[in-house]
């Protein structure tokens, strides 16, 4: 599942998912599938990241990643999305799962509010992709994304990004100012015309 550009169609998509959840209790699309969540949680566990570390999910959508992190024992979880319908949906999913300790907020990550700061870990599954596809000044928006990330993530904090639009080399270039690469996480491989590649890139950066 690859994101499309950030515009009003997002809100419409989440309004539909909200209606579906109210009708049949289905939380909707998990971006990049279940394995993308497992990959993130495994990395956090392998690094022995403390369970009380503050985690920000950028573009949380239906909030399912944070639900899974809460089930794994993480206690300081915040999800933001610029779509009010997405936040409504994530709050309903949180209610159904009984996870009252997850905070959800309507926020535009390109203009974050002052209280959005000091996070130990930031996670992005597809939001940077969606911002990158914006036909209106995509380059400027990508630079603003990096500035916002620097303002919300603590020095030496971790940034885990999953992308289907950018290669490892391209992401290294996008985040070269203020971040260093720690690790590339394994993602599903595909074979096309005798060449093996990855349809999804997942990287861990550390803020300098």
UniProtKB/TrEMBL annotation:
It catalyses: L-lysyl-[protein] + 3 S-adenosyl-L-methionine = N(6),N(6),N(6)-trimethyl-L-lysyl-[protein] + 3 S-adenosyl-L-homocysteine + 3 H(+). GO terms for biological process: methylation. It holds the Pfam family Methyltransf_31. Coiled coil: none annotated. The keyword Ligase does not apply. The keyword S-adenosyl-L-methionine applies. GO terms for cellular component: cytoplasm. GO terms for molecular function: protein-lysine N-methyltransferase activity. Keywords: Cytoplasm, Methyltransferase, Nucleus, S-adenosyl-L-methionine, Transferase. Residues 53-183 form the Methyltransferase domain. It comes from the Eukaryota. CDD domains: AdoMet_MTases. InterPro entries: Efm4/METTL10, Methyltranfer_dom, SAM-dependent_MTases_sf. Gene3D superfamilies: Vaccinia Virus protein VP39. PANTHER family: EEF1A LYSINE METHYLTRANSFERASE 2, PROTEIN-LYSINE N-METHYLTRANSFERASE METTL10. This is EFMT2 methyltransferase. It comes from Dromas ardeola.
């Amino acid at each position: 599942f690859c994101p499309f550009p950030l515009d009003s169609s997002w809100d419409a998509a989440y309004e539909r998912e909200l209606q579906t959840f109210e009708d049949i209790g289905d939380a909707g699309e998990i971006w990049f599938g279940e394995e993308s969540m497992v990959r993130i949680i495994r990395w956090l566990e392998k690094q022995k990241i403390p369970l009380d570390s503050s985690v920000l999910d950028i573009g949380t959508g239906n909030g399912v990643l944070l639900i899974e992190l809460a089930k794994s024992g993480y206690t300081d979880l915040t999800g933001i999305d610029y779509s009010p319908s997405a936040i409504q949906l994530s709050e309903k999913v949180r209610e159904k799962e009984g996870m009252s300790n997850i905070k959800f907020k309507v926020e535009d990550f390109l203009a974050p509010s002052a209280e959005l700061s000091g996070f130990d870990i930031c996670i992005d599954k597809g939001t940077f992709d969606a911002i990158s596809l914006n036909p209106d000044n995509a380059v400027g928006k990508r630079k603003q994304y990096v500035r916002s990330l620097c303002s919300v993530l603590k020095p030496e904090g971790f940034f885990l990004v999953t992308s289907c639009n950018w290669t490892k080399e391209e992401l290294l270039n996008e985040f070269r100012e203020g971040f260093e690469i720690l690790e590339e996480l394994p993602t599903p491989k595909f074979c096309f015309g005798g060449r093996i590649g990855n349809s999804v890139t997942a990287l861990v950066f550390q803020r300098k």
